[in-house]
Write a structure and sequence with these properties.
Layout: H1 2-20, H2 36-65, E1 70-79, E2 82-90, H3 92-115, H4 130-149, H5 153-171, H6 179-209, H7 214-219, H8 224-241, H9 250-253, H10 259-267, H11 270-280, H12 282-286, H13 289-310, H14 316-336, H15 340-368, H16 379-382, H17 384-398, H18 404-422, H19 429-458, H20 474-489, H21 497-503, H22 525-544, H23 557-562, H24 567-616, H25 620-644
Antiparallel strand pairs: 1-2
Length: 645
């Protein structure tokens, strides 16, 4: 029964998406009657919401029925002993992640109904491409669910790549924005760089094990060199999908897409896929500690880089985007110090509060007409529902107790401290120190930029007095309100043994796992102190001048943080420009040398043919002279040859 549910889980949104792609676009102009475009939009809404709701129901059914690891598979292709299978691999962690993915997808589908509707003051209808938009969300959801339940690495790779394609289409949805197509192309190309390594890593493991079935790959006795090489190659793909340094640069630019898509990408699909893939293959990484060392260094850099970049952004969506980069650093850090359970716990709570924050930000943008915090202010009075939901989301992001992010972030810090002080992790103890200290620093910085966002957007005086903002309509408001519940309370589920057991990996002995996901003790005091320090500093700076931006306190560092240490420029100089120059050289060589030789031989043959044709068409006297000249030459040659004899 569980195998059937697991197979249906990605199939339901897949069918909804494929059918939705057949629908025509909605009309660009307001409809005066029930036209075909209106019907297409209604059908697209029904397909998108029904597909997401059906997938959520199946995920909940899996959560209730799967109490131990289960797997079903059948051989799909056997190439000389190298087997590719079709099947699902289910456990408690997969069921919980599936519930998070489908819940966020359903919220996004419902929210998009109102967010992409023509407003009374819009000159151009942004909603005429709603049918393909809703269908692409369904395909995006199906691809992530395929990654979640896949029992074979090739199936996982299919879902992995389809997500990349859907992200490209959805980020570029609003083609009126000049930055949207470029951002979509950047996301596609940067993640493809990592995906090359991911593909090679999968190929290396499959060839070594003689099968791509995950159970066979995990059970096979790989050599240390194979595990190290495959693990590092897989981490390249993880760095691309989960926006880890140095392949993180695509994620903030992806904010050019519609805000609901930002919620979907950041909360439950694309960026979560890399972390989840590592947990799926975690025993292979523990057998090659070098890979976890590299992951710990990358995660620590990403954590601090994202947090510092978030402090100087004016665009509210880019603040949240950089916060996602930072929070992903906590997840990869937890993996590096030996706790996939803590990583998945933070992944689940992050899915709740980050989806809440993006949809609440969408409500603010919808009301104000701008993404810039410098054009907001005083919104807590006119948008009370959005304000309190944002308070919950930012509190969970910063780690305010007892909200969800507090418990999951503390779980990461606890296992990192144990790895540092006691050397309990699979990587060297200095990796534990690095992750722990970076995580503690991130607590203070996160509290600072979360407080800045709240103060700049919702407190002070309105900066656009002509705008009359208000809370969003019900279709936008209810997804935000419902997401506030897990953002506030999901962390408390860590106290439940059944919940903790679903995230525990019996094959991975790690420090702290025996005590559950949450930890009560003196270790909580230091993160709380750092939280108060960060929040206190931003509040102190704001109270001095409520009209000023607290980021002014960064001084000369503010432009550097706003540009994320100019790493985009570094990549452009070291990668983009050289490859463009190489491409131009290759094009010149192809056009001048290769095409020149081919076209030159063609022109020579044409010239020779034209000359012969001219002779063939010559007048009779000239032709007779030619014949006589030829005969004379032949006779002369015969005489010379005969004389030599």
């Amino acid at each position: 029964m569980s195998g059937v549910l697991g197979a249906l889980l990605p199939a339901v949104p897949l069918v909804a998406g494929l059918v939705g792609l057949l629908l025509p676009p909605a009309p660009r102009q307001p409809a005066t009657g029930a036209g075909g475009g209106d019907r297409a939009r209604r059908v697209a809404v029904a397909l998108g919401v029904t597909g997401a709701a059906g997938a959520l129901a199946l995920a909940v059914a899996l959560l209730l029925t799967v109490d131990r690891p289960e797997e079903t598979s059948t051989t799909w292709v056997d190439l000389g002993g190298l087997t590719v299978t079709l099947g699902v691999r289910l456990d408690g962690a997969a069921a919980l992640v599936a519930v998070a993915v489908t819940a966020v997808a359903l919220a996004v589908q419902v929210y998009s109904i109102g967010y992409l509707r023509r407003g009374p003051h819009d000159d151009v209808d942004v909603d005429h491409r709603y049918p393909p938009y809703a269908a692409q969300i369904s395909l995006f959801t199906a691809a992530m669910l395929l990654v979640v339940v896949a029992g074979d690495l090739v199936m996982l790779l299919v879902g992995w790549e389809v997500m990349g394609l859907c992200s490209y289409l959805l980020i570029a949805h609003d083609r009126r924005l000049p930055g949207a197509p470029a951002a979509a192309m950047k996301a596609f190309l940067v993640t493809r760089v990592g995906d090359v390594g991911f593909l090679l890593g999968i190929a290396l493991l499959g060839v070594s094990a003689g099968s791509f079935r995950i159970a066979d790959v995990l059970a096979h006795d790989h050599s240390t060199a194979t595990l190290t090489a495959a693990g590092l190659l897989l981490l390249a793909g993880v760095a691309g999908k989960s926006a880890q340094f140095p392949l993180h640069t695509w994620l903030p630019d992806a904010m050019a897409g519609p805000t609901p898509i930002s919620a979907l990408i950041h909360a439950a699909t694309m960026v979560a896929a890399g972390v989840y893939a590592v947990t799926r293959l975690y025993p292979l990484f523990t057998a090659a500690p070098v890979t976890l060392t590299v992951l710990g260094v990358i995660g620590s850099i990403t954590l601090l880089l994202g947090a510092l970049a978030a402090t100087a952004q004016d665009d509210i969506k880019r603040v949240l985007a950089w916060s996602t980069v930072s929070q992903l650093g906590y997840m990869t850090g937890a993996l590096a110090v030996g706790s996939p359970s803590a990583a998945l716990f933070h992944l689940l709570t992050h899915a709740a509060f980050k989806a809440l924050l993006f949809l609440a930000a969408g409500a603010v943008i919808h009301a104000v007409g701008s993404t810039l915090m410098s054009e907001m202010g005083g919104l807590r009075r006119s948008m009370p529902v959005t304000f309190w939901c944002t308070v919950v989301g930012l509190g969970a992001l910063a780690g305010v107790p007892p909200l969800a992010g507090f418990w999951s972030k503390d779980g990461v810090l606890t296992v990192a401290e144990a790895a540092a002080r006691e050397g309990t992790g699979p990587a060297p103890s200095w990796v534990g120190w690095l992750v722990w200290l970076a995580g503690l620093t991130g607590v203070a910085i996160t509290a600072w930029y979360a407080g800045r966002l709240l103060l700049r957007a919702f407190f002070g005086e309105p900066r656009l007095p002509l705008v009359r903002p208000h809370d969003p309509p019900a279709v936008l408001r209810w997804p935000v309100l419902l997401l506030a519940v897990p953002a506030a309370l999901l962390g408390l589920a860590g106290f439940l043994g059944a919940f903790a057991d679903r995230l525990r990996f019996a094959t991975v002995p790690v420090a702290g796992a025996e005590d559950g996901l949450v930890h009560l003790g003196p270790g909580l005091l230091l993160p709380l102190v750092l939280l108060l320090v960060g929040a206190g500093l931003v509040l102190l700076g704001w109270r001095r001048d409520t009209a000023a931006d607290p980021a002014a306190a960064l001084g000369p560092l503010r432009p550097l943080f706003a540009r994320a240490f100019r790493l985009d420029d570094v990549q452009h100089a070291l990668v983009v420009r050289p490859f463009r120059a190489l491409a131009r050289a290759a094009r010149t060589g192809d056009e001048v040398v290769v095409d020149g030789a081919v076209e030159g031989s063609g022109r020579a043959a044409s010239g020779l043919g034209a000359g012969l044709a001219a002779l063939h068409r010559a007048a009779l006297p000239r032709a007779a002279a030619g014949v006589l000249a030829g005969a004379l030459l032949i006779g002369l040659a015969a005489a010379l040859i005969g004389g030599n004899r």
